[in-house]
Amino acid sequence: MSNPVRAWHTSSYTGGNDPNCVEVAEGAMTAVRDTQNRELGHLEFSSAEWASLVDTLKSHS
Predict the structure, then answer these.
(1) In a domain, 3, yes or no
(2) How far apart are CA 21 and CA 35, in angstroms?
(3) Is 23 helix (H, G, I), strand (E, B) or coil?
(4) Contact at 8 Å (CB) between 32 and 45?
């Protein structure tokens, strides 16, 4: 099975050139990785898991 090419983008919550940020790639699974440590891999979340995480973070901000 081949690895899909991901369209990574910096989090919209990152301001300017802040090196302390994450990158996200949406698709069938949402992937998240550390911008400074891309070589360490990424985490993947299903649509339901990602929505739950975002909702939880919004409710605690």
Answers:
(1) no
(2) 6
(3) strand
(4) yes
Number of domains in the chain: 1
Whether 29 and 53 have beta carbons less than 8 Å apart is answered as: no
Q: Give the span between the Cα atoms of 47 and 20, in whole angstroms.
A: 25
Question: Considering the domain boundaries, does residue 29 fall inside one?
Answer: yes
25 within a domain of the structure (yes/no): yes
Pairing mode, strands 9-10 and 22-25: antiparallel
Which domain covers residue 32, as residue numbers? 9-59
At a CB cut-off of 8 Å and minimum separation 6, what does 26 contact? 7
pLDDT tens profile 8-23:
998 776 666 677 788 9
CB 27 within 8 A of CB 10: no
> The dihedral of CA 37, 22, 31, 59: what is its sign?
positive
The model's pTM is 0.73
